[in-house]
């Protein structure tokens, strides 16, 4: 029912925009916000544009590749392009995963333009929901349903009439209340909450504070930090802890003497995890065990910050006098835009970064310029690898291959520099991050139990 009401609210927003010939051009879960008044609000109009008339098209390609319609890649964006993005968004909200997850930019474009259109399984979801999504994801824009047609679809018709009549959704009100119970700070003004990350606007991270077993049930895709209080979750019934339900998790902080009966912890799929702190005497009934702190940041954010800092510097020199000083919120959001630009430049030679959604000023970043900005950081990482090999009493001849794991290692300049520095070593890029983490965890466990290290731990 929540998905039905989310779809209805999105259609109301698009109906309002499209009646005014406005295309949003960047509909995705992270741009949908749940309000404490029980409705979904659409945000981030940085790419929005107004057409001369309802049949017009825009030749500029923009948006987020996973959600872009086929015609957008051809430079023919139109009102129904938002409908395609809504269909992809609903699949992601339903399945918890984008249908193009783990695809490269080129692969996404190929599948969207030439492959089978994404769809929901009617065996898992209602036939009405599956049909609704299929009407959104028709490649031919003449056949794809409009927002007006979708509002009459059986999947949302009753929901839309109910929300229109009473002004809110009871299901979304309940969802908002559940979010507010997740230890979020009190705000006198009802905040809007991001539907994907479920983090209060203007709050930096959404934190789940675990004070007992029941709090473990509150884990979800919105949680970015988990803090476990001292001496909790020690009941015999707590034997496993699976954190995979928190894909946006950045930090785990466990105080002393927790999880004494836990024999298995699953950290699969936590690609954004940067920091793990484990207090004394955790995950054991024995006493006097040491505490640990791990920095899991793999360096990709270092590239993003270098790009962001340069773009901000350029903005200050060229545009600040005309458009004004950047707000802290704009700077925070710019980091994600720089990450997206870095990803785009795996397949493209240049891409645009919109530095401030309230202005028309943008910066065009070329692949060669990005390589100049991040080249020094890659050289430093290679130097640290050399240092780790030496400290382990090894030479390059003892190394069989280089394994590239993670998004930033897919940049052409990374492989180029590695081939120049290690010309005799084979380079592999087919290993999944979780496989590498599992191998590293096994080796680290061996090192802790025997005192023998395969290689000195070092920032990669």
TrEMBL record:
PROSITE patterns: PROTEIN_KINASE_DOM (PS50011), PROTEIN_KINASE_ST (PS00108). Residues 1-156 form the Protein kinase domain. Signal peptide: none annotated. It catalyses: L-seryl-[protein] + ATP = O-phospho-L-seryl-[protein] + ADP + H(+); L-tyrosyl-[protein] + ATP = O-phospho-L-tyrosyl-[protein] + ADP + H(+); L-threonyl-[protein] + ATP = O-phospho-L-threonyl-[protein] + ADP + H(+). The lineage of its organism: Eukaryota, Sar, Stramenopiles, Bigyra, Opalozoa. It comes from the Eukaryota. GO terms for molecular function: ATP binding; ATP-dependent protein folding chaperone; MAP kinase kinase activity. This is mitogen-activated protein kinase kinase. It comes from Blastocystis sp. subtype 1 (strain ATCC 50177 / NandII). It holds the Pfam family Pkinase. Belongs to the protein kinase superfamily. STE Ser/Thr protein kinase family. MAP kinase kinase subfamily.
């Amino acid at each position: 029912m929540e998905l039905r009401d989310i779809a209805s609210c999105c259609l109301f927003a698009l109906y309002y925009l499209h009646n005014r010939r406005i295309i949003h051009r960047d509909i995705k879960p992270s741009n949908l916000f749940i309000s404490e008044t029980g409705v979904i609000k659409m945000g981030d109009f940085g790419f929005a544009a107004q057409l001369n008339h309802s049949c017009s098209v825009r030749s500029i390609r923009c948006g987020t590749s996973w959600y872009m319609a086929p015609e957008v890649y051809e430079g023919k964006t139109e009102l129904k392009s938002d409908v395609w993005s809504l269909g992809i968004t609903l699949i992601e909200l339903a399945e918890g995963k984008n249908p193009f997850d783990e695809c490269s930019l080129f692969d996404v474009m190929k599948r969207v333009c030439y492959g089978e259109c994404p769809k929901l399984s009617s065996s898992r979801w209602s036939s009405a929901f599956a049909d609704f999504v299929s009407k959104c994801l028709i490649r031919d824009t003449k056949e794809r349903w409009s927002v007006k047609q979708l509002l009459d679809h059986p999947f949302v018709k009753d929901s839309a009439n109910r929300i229109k009549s009473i002004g809110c959704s009871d299901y979304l009100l309940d969802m908002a209340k559940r979010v507010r119970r997740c230890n979020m700070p009190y705000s006198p003004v009802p905040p809007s909450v991001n539907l994907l990350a479920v983090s209060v606007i203007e709050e930096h991270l959404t934190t789940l504070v675990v004070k007992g077993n029941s709090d473990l049930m509150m884990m979800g895709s919105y949680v970015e930090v988990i803090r476990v209080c001292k001496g909790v979750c020690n009941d015999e019934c707590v034997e496993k802890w699976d954190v995979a339900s928190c894909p946006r998790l950045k930090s785990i902080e466990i105080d002393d003497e927790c999880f004494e009966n836990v024999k298995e912890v699953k950290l699969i799929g936590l690609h954004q995890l940067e920091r793990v702190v484990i207090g004394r005497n955790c995950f054991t009934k024995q006493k006097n065990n040491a505490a640990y702190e791990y920095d899991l940041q793999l360096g990709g954010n270092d590239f993003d910050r270098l790009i962001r800092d340069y773009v901000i510097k350029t903005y200050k020199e060229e545009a600040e006098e005309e458009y004004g000083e950047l707000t802290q919120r704009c700077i925070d959001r710019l980091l994600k835009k720089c990450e997206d630009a870095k990803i785009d430049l795996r397949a493209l030679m240049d891409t645009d970064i919109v530095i401030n959604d309230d202005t028309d000023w943008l910066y065009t970043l070329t692949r060669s310029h990005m390589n100049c900005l991040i080249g020094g950081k890659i050289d430093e990482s290679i130097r640290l690898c050399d240092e780790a090999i030496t400290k382990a009493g090894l030479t390059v001849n003892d190394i069989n291959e280089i394994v590239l794991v993670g998004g930033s290692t897919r940049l052409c300049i990374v492989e180029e520099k590695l081939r120049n520095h290690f010309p005799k070593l084979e380079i592999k890029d087919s290993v999944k991050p979780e496989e590498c983490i599992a191998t590293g965890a096994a080796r680290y466990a061996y090192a802790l139990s025997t005192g023998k290290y395969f290689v000195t731990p070092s920032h990669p």
